[in-house]
Amino acid sequence: MSQQIEVGVLGATGMVGQQFIAQLAAHPWFRLTWVGASERSAGQKYRDAASWRLPVAPPADLADLVVQEARPGNGAPDLVFSAMDASVAGEIEEAFARAGHVVVSNSRNHRMAPDVPLLVPEINSDHIALIQTQRAARGWSGALVTNPNCSTVFLAMALAPLRQYGLKSVIVTTLQALSGAGYPGVASLDAVGNVVPFIPGEEAKIESEPKKILGSLERGQVVPHPVVISASTTRVAVVNGHTESIAVQLEQQPSLDQVRHALVSFSGAPQRHNLPSAPSQPIVYLHEENRPQPRLDVDRDGGMTVTVGRLRTCPILGYKFFALGHNTVRGAAGAAVLNAELLMAEGVLASPVARG
Amino acid sequence: MSQQIEVGVLGATGMVGQQFIAQLAAHPWFRLTWVGASERSAGQKYRDAASWRLPVAPPADLADLVVQEARPGNGAPDLVFSAMDASVAGEIEEAFARAGHVVVSNSRNHRMAPDVPLLVPEINSDHIALIQTQRAARGWSGALVTNPNCSTVFLAMALAPLRQYGLKSVIVTTLQALSGAGYPGVASLDAVGNVVPFIPGEEAKIESEPKKILGSLERGQVVPHPVVISASTTRVAVVNGHTESIAVQLEQQPSLDQVRHALVSFSGAPQRHNLPSAPSQPIVYLHEENRPQPRLDVDRDGGMTVTVGRLRTCPILGYKFFALGHNTVRGAAGAAVLNAELLMAEGVLASPVARG
Amino acid sequence: MSQQIEVGVLGATGMVGQQFIAQLAAHPWFRLTWVGASERSAGQKYRDAASWRLPVAPPADLADLVVQEARPGNGAPDLVFSAMDASVAGEIEEAFARAGHVVVSNSRNHRMAPDVPLLVPEINSDHIALIQTQRAARGWSGALVTNPNCSTVFLAMALAPLRQYGLKSVIVTTLQALSGAGYPGVASLDAVGNVVPFIPGEEAKIESEPKKILGSLERGQVVPHPVVISASTTRVAVVNGHTESIAVQLEQQPSLDQVRHALVSFSGAPQRHNLPSAPSQPIVYLHEENRPQPRLDVDRDGGMTVTVGRLRTCPILGYKFFALGHNTVRGAAGAAVLNAELLMAEGVLASPVARG
Amino acid sequence: MSQQIEVGVLGATGMVGQQFIAQLAAHPWFRLTWVGASERSAGQKYRDAASWRLPVAPPADLADLVVQEARPGNGAPDLVFSAMDASVAGEIEEAFARAGHVVVSNSRNHRMAPDVPLLVPEINSDHIALIQTQRAARGWSGALVTNPNCSTVFLAMALAPLRQYGLKSVIVTTLQALSGAGYPGVASLDAVGNVVPFIPGEEAKIESEPKKILGSLERGQVVPHPVVISASTTRVAVVNGHTESIAVQLEQQPSLDQVRHALVSFSGAPQRHNLPSAPSQPIVYLHEENRPQPRLDVDRDGGMTVTVGRLRTCPILGYKFFALGHNTVRGAAGAAVLNAELLMAEGVLASPVARG
């Protein structure tokens, strides 16, 4: 235990914060010792400040932790995860990075900033080099890295292995889970027996973020991938798990078998470093004709795997398939924790343990 | 009442048959006097033969009607609706048409036969001229007309007004309701909190049927429309109402306002003839950013309207929007009843009433 | 139309207010000409002030109606329905009654006041005599009548026919629909695939309100019925329709057939007066072993009927059965409209029309 | 691994059989080496014979196991679990017990036989002495033990700690999950947005089985507990987890605190023996006013705990509360596995390992 490094969570009382806490509960490298929230919650014990809403109980020792105000200088450890609402995340995350903290954020505020890595570690672990640019430009001693919007993660994961064939265009329709909207989030009358064909801001994120993630790093800058994406988003009565119906146009014409092989053999830095949260196989392909399904597939490998199925020919764009991912794990808290593991493995954070 | 014509329903005890019965319950032109089903049910009173599963109670006088075996010569009236399962519909429908009945079918068996009209009356009422071809080729004194698959109806309705701009290609992902699969149909464990990304046979129908519906009649034959369609289908936990996420490529570049205008001003033979089941406006466009929704929009105009929303620019195909329709009404029983009304208004069936 | 009387709705922009508007849309006696809401909404057109959330569209002429502030003297008609939130209903309703209006309220605030009728017209239409007591005690020229909590209505309806056998005690567990909690109401994460075994304040209402409703009027006062009720309430993923599992102890021992007969033959003032919203048979008994069900039975007779099934022997209390009612119709807006109809039929309000 | 004993599963391809396999996947004492099913499946590899429907994948080595016909003499190990359908379980289980196998069954067929233990190990581990009676009466060298119906388990668990206060009568309404009905089981149209107030045969089981479980063993026979139970059962749209609304009458009048203490301090043979599947605390009481809930509480302690909440005074029977349990774990496969562990710990089966 003494080999673990201490970490904090900004926005710890909210729904995303709780997911971070669940994700960190038995982490081999990280030990949660600090929780930050708004002024209103500061000073209370965590158990009193937070209305816990996850099926897994919060760690026993967390309950008595006193919530700190979310600003630097309250004993926050070097590494802090940010689960803050976008309305406040911008300034607070900057303040922490300026004060020397490494901030690993799930918030959307800085994702598209040119000097902030937007990481999916299997795809673009080299983008952490942006931290040099960031520090130089902003004069920060700390750093700020981000993970994408949940729907973006699964789409980017499914597209990355196809870059070798020349990604041209993508049309995607999402069927997104309720947990993505937090708590209370979506009203039950909008969810039960219904579909809502709109999620505020979501389509713009899905159309822009993957271009940065799939982009190449050239002279300290990310050159966005030229792929064009068109997204339509819906909310469905699923608790966890975003399903995506994806059609893709490629420059080359690989066979369906070649595409399948590209997907299942895809692997990257997390697997190379054998990171604690890394799935052994980032993309699993199911051959059954009615998969992936949220109920059966969302928790594969602790929710860190993207499951793909129904790859077939699209008479218009060439290829179409379905992808599924766990929106609050691989699409949020698990993504951020994997980012932090990557930073340690790559030496951005001093690693407390020897890893095999 | 004496002015009504008598009609029958083939496959009356099943789920689709029940929907026909509900649709005909208070019909001003048609009076249901004959119900046909399999040998197993024949001879029983309808109330004993059918396990009624709709919220509206069956008509009181129907309950005592004796179920006949589904073959010509059992007192079946001239006009019969077919709600039979595809496993038996083929031969039985042919037998009835050969014996002089006008068969208005919801079954898939004959939809794509070159001499069988596949009707969406607002779009291709002129296709009833195929009946001449059909009678000549088959030597039938009766006739057989069909309505499309449920998802096809809503897609074809939304595309028809855009033919003027040159329909090139369409990518559609459907979120389909449970009632489309009949009873018991989809297992509850596959539906509650889940999405199933597959519906057997559905994508092929959606990709082919609209080409025939939107096609033009030339010298007694339908020349299919050249539009290319790519479909992905999913089943979601909705009782009634298929939602479709549609992207369309056109040859011309109308403005979004022009497209919207084309949709809401779309109208055809049912409106011209003022048919009893015809919606006054076949396509309603909603400007709210989160519509259409099954819970709020599926029953508009008795379920005969297609509701469209969220029209916006698609960076790949040009246009994208959502459409919604009631799958067991406009997509099945209501579609067939509207077809029968069209046949009467166009003189294929002798009309018992004067219509204004 | 000139024979209709004008009515208003207090709290017209909220969810319950919308249900009142839907209920009044095609009413033969009442014409909605006035809508009142909070200061914040006052002055706006109804279409701008309200976020309409019901499947049926609001009446066209309502959309342009200007919302008035909810206080007497803004042109409110003599008869006003109250759909106000309990946090404000108390004082405002009193102000209207004091100013001479007849207030027909769905709010809970005054239900248990000794001089306020708590009406289920089939059961206790004679309780409107309390209005005399009320006017004498409070010096009001108007009047205030209330309808019960939704779950109470269905329970009281099912118990009323059994009073003849001596009601002793009742244990009830409810499975309540989401629409009862308004909008946004229950969070979807609490509803989808879940049961919440608690509804704030609900059990106390169910345990007390029926005693008043079933009570007898003696010398201008209601003597509560001595029945003892024990309630447990749950929220389930149903849109409309509360299901109740009811066990009853009676002083006498009628046969199950006698109990069934008492239920189905139950009738009262609404049927006698042939009120527009009155169901022809207030309680329908279904003999199928798996009924009543919300999906199949909630809309019976426009949602004004209570459906009962599965009557059987309880080895502890003697009798048990299930009852179902539409919570926003018979349990709220429809109940209030029926109350107003009763007041007209009984001469408390001057009737504009001759009724057969 | 060599210390594990080999076990088989009868009815291994069905839904309950799959739950057994999942429950045994990483068991420290038992190794699944034999799967039996109907003649139709016999001879096929398990992967081909079974349509796997659980979220967790089946063990890799199971997939290649060849399914045997479910009769003695096919290499079945000494200990076999029975997940067979009640239509065939009766004779086959008897044949195995006669042939010397210890049969641990989840099927209902022999539960109420006087010489067959109906076990909830925390409550009546002493009932395994019935095996002597059974062997004497039937001349079997093996043995047959059973676990109760799912709803019974949770009710019996919640009642057992109250026996000390004199259990007199119980009224229970259940809200049962879909997984209890197997696959395809409940039709989705009966589940989504609905409640079905009936489950075939369920109420009779809940009213009778607890009397045997809570009964005392006297001279080799179980004397049923005199408690009188009245059950009403419903099916709701929950995947896993039966919720029960329970009212209890006791001879004595313990305080609510005493009842709560009795519940949370309840413990029995599984805890004494520290059995692998035993929850450390069989009954957990939650103080939050809206618990237990299936979504949040069903998986506590691997699904082996019963969660209770909302204990309060019932004005009729004295006490009322809600209980929740995992129907396919503590209510089925997990219950049977715990029974087998008990048999080993008590020496009915030779134990392969030393236990602390």
Mean pLDDT of chain A: 95
* Strand segment count of chain A: 14
Give the overall shape of chain A: globular
Summing up helix and strand content along with how strands pair, one would put the structural category of chain A as alpha/beta
Look up the CATH topology of the largest domain in chain A.
Answer: Dihydrodipicolinate Reductase, domain 2
Strand residue content of chain A = 15-25%
What is the second-level CATH architecture of the largest domain in chain A?
Answer: 2-Layer Sandwich
Rg over alpha carbons of chain A: 20 Å
The tally of domains of chain A stands at 2
CATH superfamily of the largest domain in chain A: Dihydrodipicolinate Reductase, domain 2
Biggest protein-protein interface? A-B, 43 and 43 residues
Question: How would you describe what is shown here?
Answer:
- The structure is a homotetramer of 356-residue chains.
- Chain A has 356 residues and is an alpha/beta fold.
- The first copy, chain A, has 2 domains: 5-148 and 333-345, Rossmann fold (3-Layer(aba) Sandwich); 150-327, Dihydrodipicolinate Reductase, domain 2 (2-Layer Sandwich).
- Chain A is built from 12 helices and 14 strands.
- Chain A has a 6-stranded parallel beta sheet, sandwiched between helices. In chain A, strands 10-7-11-14-13-12 form a 6-stranded mixed beta sheet. In chain A, strands 8-9 form a two-stranded antiparallel ribbon.
- In chain A, helix 1 packs across helix 12.
- Mean pLDDT of chain A is 95; it is low at 351-356.
- Chain A binds chain B through residues 169-171, 173, 175, 189-190, 193-198, 207, 228-230, 232, 234, 236-239, 241, 243, 245, 247, 249, 289-295, 309-310, 314-317, 320, 322, and chain B through 169-171, 173, 175, 189-190, 193-198, 207, 228-230, 232, 234, 236-239, 241, 243, 245, 247, 249, 289-295, 309-310, 314-317, 320, 322.
